[in-house]
Amino acid sequence: MSTSHYETRYAGSPEAVKTLDTAALRKHFLIEKLFEADRCSWVYSHYDRHMTGGAMPVNGPVNLDTLDVLKAGYFLERRELGIINTGGTGTVEVDGEKFTLQYKEALYVGQGKKKVLFSSADKNAPAKFYLNSTPAHTAYPTKKVTRAEAEIVELGSLETANHRVINKLLVNSVVKTCQLQMGMTELKAGSVWNTMPAHTHDRRMEVYFYFEVPEGQSVCHFMGQTDETRHIWMQNEQAVISPPWSIHAGAGTSNYTFIWGMAGENLDYDDMDKCAITALR
């Protein structure tokens, strides 16, 4: 029996999105629950056909099953996969080869791998595998990336409340991918803004996954065009879809960590159309 399930989110134009009320905005862009015991949960977005998922094995291994929406014999027949562990120690088995992932370690799995199995070392502290998947045109090798192997960039300052460390984990300067890019940004204590000044990148979409949000705290995620912004209040371990035409920035009531995942035609991380803070509306 399949342990996977999914829902589909369709793309919308800026004109359509700016007419949405709070409930509709959350329905189209917010991903409220990614981790369910012994299941693999997915949201299939029509923005660059990016898939956002979560696998949390508790009582036994969880298989990466194919889905009806893929019309494929196996999940990675025409896709690549990025994995970052946001829970306890776990193992990802890829066509018989096992990779142990500690907290905040990443794994890239290339197109064409037929059998992917997720498991936890301790059911009382299960692994929480955060997953991103995008269409792929060729097969690149499976590669684990530890935090020590990531490309590290430190930006911002406490004075502007955006002192943060960017860990580029699955990017083309670290591992070969077709179009998928993933990384993790950690905010320093006292800082709350994750991306400021805000920007867009019309050549790729993005998904933000917020975690390490302290109990009783929240993150306000900002989206929309630079002159027509909207916001979504988010809780711990929730994700939000960002269209290519939208800014993607957030401010929390405490510091936190978030994982960014991107899909599109451009692998240049710095390909951004920046907006002055004073120009936001």
UniProtKB/TrEMBL annotation:
<comment type="function">
    <text>Catalyzes the isomerization of 5-dehydro-4-deoxy-D-glucuronate to 3-deoxy-D-glycero-2,5-hexodiulosonate.</text>
</comment>
<keyword id="KW-0479">Metal-binding</keyword>
<keyword id="KW-0413">Isomerase</keyword>
<feature type="binding site">
    <location>
        <position position="201"/>
    </location>
    <ligand>
        <name>Zn(2+)</name>
    </ligand>
</feature>
<dbReference type="InterPro" id="IPR021120">
    <property type="entry name" value="KduI/IolB_isomerase"/>
</dbReference>
<dbReference type="InterPro" id="IPR014710">
    <property type="entry name" value="RmlC-like_jellyroll"/>
</dbReference>
<dbReference type="GO" id="GO:0016853">
    <property type="term" value="F:isomerase activity"/>
</dbReference>
<comment type="pathway">
    <text>Glycan metabolism; pectin degradation; 2-dehydro-3-deoxy-D-gluconate from pectin: step 4/5.</text>
</comment>
<keyword id="KW-0862">Zinc</keyword>
<dbReference type="Pfam" id="PF04962">
    <property type="entry name" value="KduI"/>
</dbReference>
<comment type="similarity">
    <text>Belongs to the KduI family.</text>
</comment>
<protein>
    <recommendedName>
        <fullName>4-deoxy-L-threo-5-hexosulose-uronate ketol-isomerase</fullName>
        <ecNumber>5.3.1.17</ecNumber>
    </recommendedName>
</protein>
<feature type="binding site">
    <location>
        <position position="248"/>
    </location>
    <ligand>
        <name>Zn(2+)</name>
    </ligand>
</feature>
<dbReference type="InterPro" id="IPR027449">
    <property type="entry name" value="KduI_N"/>
</dbReference>
<feature type="binding site">
    <location>
        <position position="199"/>
    </location>
    <ligand>
        <name>Zn(2+)</name>
    </ligand>
</feature>
<feature type="binding site">
    <location>
        <position position="206"/>
    </location>
    <ligand>
        <name>Zn(2+)</name>
    </ligand>
</feature>
<dbReference type="InterPro" id="IPR011051">
    <property type="entry name" value="RmlC_Cupin_sf"/>
</dbReference>
<dbReference type="InterPro" id="IPR007045">
    <property type="entry name" value="KduI"/>
</dbReference>
